[in-house]
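User: Okay, second chain of the day. Same drill as before: sequence in, structure tokens out.
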Amino acid sequence: MEEMLIKIFLALVLGGALGMERQYHDKPAGYATNCLICLGAMLFTILSQQMGQQGGDPGRIAAQVVTGLGFIGAGSILRDGNKISGLTTAASVWVVAAIGMAIGYGQYIWATVTACAILILQFGMRRTIHLVELLKHYDTIYLVCEPRWEVVQRIVSAIEKQNVTVLKQEVTKQDNRFCVSLVATFTGQEFSKITKELLEMPEVYSLYK
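Assistant: Same drill. Structure tokens below.
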């Protein structure tokens, strides 16, 4: 009974810690969700062990936990045009289940170290992302503008004025509007300047990357 209470406590603490990080950054699958996932994975793992002691297949339930968590993770992935978000949250849900299973098997050190590593990665990545923004990198800018070729030329000229070279451009027409995709290399600061200037053009309706 004492060991069971330790497992429940550790599942709530580690799952809750990872859930708080997601909730702090206003992401899907927050504190309560991760607590339940970790606790549920832990309990299923214990039941899987009990099944093995009674002559059943000890890996049967545990295997289904890994598969079943894919459905929950997929629900947090969202697509908006060419932009996909929620992949990190989906991956964290999957890892939280693995931590819960580790707790269920009594691997407390592995579970704790993994949870700490994830927290360090998540918070550390957001601090170092500002350094990455100072480096030039390939990226694609997507715009919706008036269906006139001179507008496209004005957009390209405005970008090149920021010492940014447009490497590739593609234009399609939808609903009497031009959808323009431009591939270029620029820093985060250059993109901010480009965004501000282009959105001030009345011919440009929307912009994202």
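Residues 108-132 form the longest helix (25 residues).

User: Thanks, on to the next one.
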